[in-house]
Each structure stands twice: as structure tokens, then as C-alpha cells.
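Good morning C.,

I know you're traveling, so I'll keep this short. The sequence:
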Amino acid sequence: MSLPSGTFSQKYGQDMAIMRTKTQWIFLALLVAFLASFPLWASDTVLTFSILAGITIISVHGLNILTGNCGLLSMGHSGFMMVGGYAMAILCSKLGWPFWVALPAAGLIAGVVGIVFGLPSLRIKGFYLIMATVAAYFIIHWLVLQFRDLTGGTEGLSVPRADLFGLTIKGKESYFYMVLVLAVLATVVAKNILRTRAGRAFVAIRDNDLAAEVMGVNLWSYKLQAFFIGCVFAGVAGALSVQYIGFCNVEQFPFFDSVWFLGMLIVGGMGSVSGVIFGVLAIKLLGQVAIRLGPALAEMVNPQAAIGLSNILPSIAIILFLIFAPRGIAHIWQRFKNYYQLWPF
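The C-alpha cells, ready to paste straight into the viewer:
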């Protein structure tokens, strides 16, 4: 990471640190203060939006590791969220597990399922891998409906409120803080995974898997690791989603969500941790803008013109970014920082 003009790292630890200047620490402190006070003045609608956006950020971090960093295209990410959601529902409602134990267990179960469906990646890639992950989603969907004694079938399962060491989380404010902590933790974990040996191997596989194999990278091991890690993130996000709603049903995890997750990566910046946050917020905010514009557009033009606007605006944004800014918002932000850091030179 580059530093402002005249600022130098004197130790290796300083060079590896995420926060490296006083300005960055000041902005971080302001951000923490803002987020800590957010539920005190935000409306219920804004809190709901923030909670769902935080859950989506956790899920897309997993897809970013799998697709953005390792180059394994997946269109079945919402299916792995479904696995995590149902794992949470079954563990809490039928087995009586506490929330703080069931949450990581749901992530691990989704990770193991991800390894199973990641096995085709050892022999196929590109379009064929996309079709394999699409098939994975529908296989998971079918299995959930067939084992109705365990999953509730089409009726679904109710999920008890989260209980953290005797403290029941039952308000939007409490859920916001819980999701915020987990989203920050997921961001830090994702950032540090990419700084490890495995993270460098993921990038090597993405850039050229044949060259990576010649250099000694074990494709079999690292591809399955990428699927496991990405699906753990998805499983945790799915578990949080059903906990927040208090109910688990297959309709909560539509296939089209997987398409939007990829769109969020395109808009935010494929392979960038900060790009995940930018992309999720951009697509989610465009959806909210479409909801606000819908009634006005229906009055000005006709009611049919407002139908599907929440899908049209994000779709237009994805197309525009593919044409004019294929590296996403994260690259635009990086160019701005480079200009600031090199000033006045």
C-alpha cells in the first residue's frame, strides 16, 4: 500500500499494517463513533436496510475470495447461504443448541457442503464451473424440500431468538450491533486471508492456474480451500438472515440473489475487500432509490413503467461499470487516494 508523500515505513510490521497513518486512524475513530451512535438516530427502515446490507457484505466477502481472488466463478452462492440458514434453524429449533454455538457450526456445515460441490472445480473451469454451481443450488433446493421431516419442506422452520450468554437479542438495535460486529470481523478476516500464503496462492490460480501449478501451488488443495472459506462466509450470512427474520424457508434464498452478488462484485471491484462494501452498498442503495421512484414514475408515465424498476437500475449500473469502469468503485477510490498521497508531486 502506498503512503502519502514524505511518509515512510521504518519497520516490517509498519509496512504490513492495515492502518498506517494518523489520518487513517482518525477516520477509523470517526467511523466507529458514527456506527456506534447509528441506531440512536436512524429510523426503523434505515436500520433494516443496514442489517440486511451487513449480512450481504458477509456473504459477498466469501464470494469475493472464491471468485474475485481465486477465479472460481460461482452462481450457487445463495444455495450455500440456504445450507447455513437451515443448519441454524435445525440446530437451534430442533436440537436446542445456543446461538453462539450454532452460528459457527452453520458456517462450517456450509463449508463442508461447499467442498463437496467444489470437487468439479478440479477438472473444469469457466462456463462449465458456472453451470456446475448452478446445478449445486438446485440440488440443495431439491434436497431441502425432500427431507421435509427435518427441514419442514415448503412450510419451513421457525427459529428462536438469538441468546448470547443469557442476553436475548430481540430488537433491531441489538441485531444491528451484532451484525455490525460480525461484518467487521468478516472484513478483517477476509483482508488477512489474502495476506497469507493461501491468499497468494488463490491469486496465482486466478491469474494463471497452469503457471501456478508449475511453480508448486497445489491446485487440488487450494481450490477446495477457496470453496470451503467462501461457503463458510455464505453459511454464516444465511444463519444470520434466518435469525433476524425468525423463520427459515427456501423462498428466502432465491437463485437470482447469486446473480446480484456477482453484480455487487463487478460494481465494487472484483478481488477487492473494500470493493465488496462499496458494491453491496451501491446496489442496495440503487434498489432503495428505485422503490422511492416507483410511485412517482407510475403517476407520470403508467403503472407498468414502475414494475421491475428495482431490478432495472442496478442492472444498468452493472452494465455501465462493465463498459466504463470494469475494475469497480474500489479502483476509482484507489486512484483518488493515489492523487492525494502523491500531492503536490
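Safe travels,
E.
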